[in-house]
Specification:
422 residues; alpha+beta; five-stranded mixed beta sheet; binds adenosine monophosphate
Length: 422
Amino acid sequence: MTKKFSLPRGTADILPDETPLWRDIEDKARKIFAIYGYQEIRTPVFEETALFTRSLGETSDVVQKQMLNLEKEGLALRPEGTASIVRSYIENNLDKKERLSKLYYIGSMFRGERPQKGRLRQFHQIGVEAIGPNSSLPYLDAEVIILAVNLLKSFGLNDFKLKINTLGSPEDKENFSKILRGELKNKSAHLCEDCQNRLERNVFRILDCKNEQCKKIVGELKIGSSYLSEASKTYFKNVKDALEFSSVAYEESSQLVRGLDYYTHTVFEISSPSLGSQDALGAGGRYNNLVSQLGGPEVDGIGFAMGVERILLALSQDPSFVKASLNCLILSLDEASLLRAFQILSILRSAGISSDMSHRFGSMKNQMSFADKIGARYVMILGEDEAKKGTVTLKNMATREQNEIKASADNLTEVIKILKEE
Ligand code: AMP
């Protein structure tokens, strides 16, 4: 028997009925980015492995467990976008060209994960980075968070939760890790094995652990804000004031630290209650030392990344969500109507109306179930009756309202007017 090929584990085909949704999301994002003055950047899907280990941290889950590693070549498929963009920022001396580089990207990312709903091995992110000298400014942090929120709203998503926190300056972060280590030391026997190792190597990751017992211990911690300097507190207050001024609802969460090494100051995460266990739609934060850590100049940066698959999953849970579909499907009830359908179809397409016809004729009942499956906005029905009277029957599939309209192959003005209405 001939071997049948299957999809690689953890990947997905994006089929023709889904691609319009992807494009719609991307188009809306591009419009918003233009309004905000972000320019597109595209980096390769692989980079030197060390770029990711240096920027995300040797001990991060992404580096230790999730990177699809092209080991022989010393290359890795990118698990996220920031490191590549920072590499490109440095290599192209963008700090010398502009005061603040506002960049966005839309592309595939790769992580060697155990696939499950909302967790893939190749997935897609839409993200932004704002990088520049002396750009650690609270209103820029607020702008980036507001951009993330408005992006989701523009996709039609309204039911999501924004959590924010601050890690403070690198010195504050060091204090924070000392306090955490102190609090967790006498509970270490109850932590999972991974977290016992994390206690010395990177205590922040314990706050992200999914183990129930660790979550319980973390939940009982009294973290407070004693690790923050006055300057960091004022910085964070300005970010929060700007969000409030813009009526952006947020929740402050001292447990939110994000799994990557490079964050300082503001961090944030947006989740959707309709997504189950993989509920993060997107996340981001400030990374003031990453550029210099990777050999670049002393410049500051902030950014976020959103998961496109998660956004689409959340959208599909919304009952008011309608799949983008064909505007008009033409159905013929008898053989003679097929030619009429073919002529009308060509005129509709010339008028720029997305349309199609069933190339088989059949009973009304069979044809309508086909129309329902395709999800057309309107169905045009052509039969003996319509041919005699020089009409077409146009059915609005949402309201199920049906009208007979005067129409001939030379004159479809009335039909075109209806189909072009929003
Ligand atoms: P992260 O860089 O891990 O903060 O990821 C940013 C966003 O990308 C997450 O909030 C998710 O929406 C999405 N994401 C991360 N990993 C995956 C994955 N394996 N599969 C699908 N989406 C993902």
